[in-house]
Amino acid sequence: MPSFKETYEAIKADWNAGEKNFNVECEMLSEGMQVKCSMGNPGGEPFELLIDAPGGLDGTNKGPSPLLVILSSIGACIIAVTKFWAKIMDINIEELKVFSRGHINLGAIFGVDDSKLAGYDNLEPVVRIKADAPEEKINELMDKVFSHCPIITNMNGASPIKPKLQIKS
Asked: Domains of the chain (ranges plus CATH)?
């Protein structure tokens, strides 16, 4: 497996070296609202993630809800991209946490009021960072992160989602 530096240099040398496709399969399980998500792992067995819902929503509460996974993805992506950019900018990060916050009204998901957004109406990740760089350089780092984080980019509507239906007979 190449190092970050090798991967970064290869993509700088040839844009096409950065082309990747990712696929995740999500399968309904029989218990509660459980969903098993399987995703590729170039290094071995596929990764699996159990997603569920709390009891009040017919779930078994044995895994995070899809809404919590969204918040987790935002925080994890910010951390990963911050670590990438810190390497690029030669900044040593001593501490990094992201507190992902989101507000939603479940009534919109249930169609109680179709004029309301059936999703988070507010997403606010709060980044807490300590690094061996002056404040101006940390601000520059985080500007790069916020403008290059794929989850932020996608959540802001840059990539259209085009569901396709396949009905089995």
From this structure: 1-63 (no CATH), 65-169 (3.30.300.20)
Q: What is the mean pLDDT of residues 60-79?
A: 97
DSSP symbols for 40-66: --TTSSPEEEEE---GGGT---SS--H
Distance CA 54, CA 34 (A): 10
Q: Residues 6 or more apart from 105 whose CB is under 8 A from it?
A: 116, 121
Q: pLDDT per residue over 29-53, tens digit each?
A: 999 999 999 998 877 888 999 999 9
Rounded Cα distance between 9 and 168, Å, is 46
Contacts 24+ apart (CB under 8 A), 54-57: 57/33, 57/106
The answer to whether 57 and 33 are in contact (CB under 8 A) is yes
Query: 99: which strand partners?
Result: 126
Structure tokens at 1: 């497996």
Whole-prediction pTM = 0.91
The token duo for 61 is 């509460």
Q: What is the pLDDT of residues 86-109, one digit of tens each?
A: 999 999 999 999 999 999 999 999
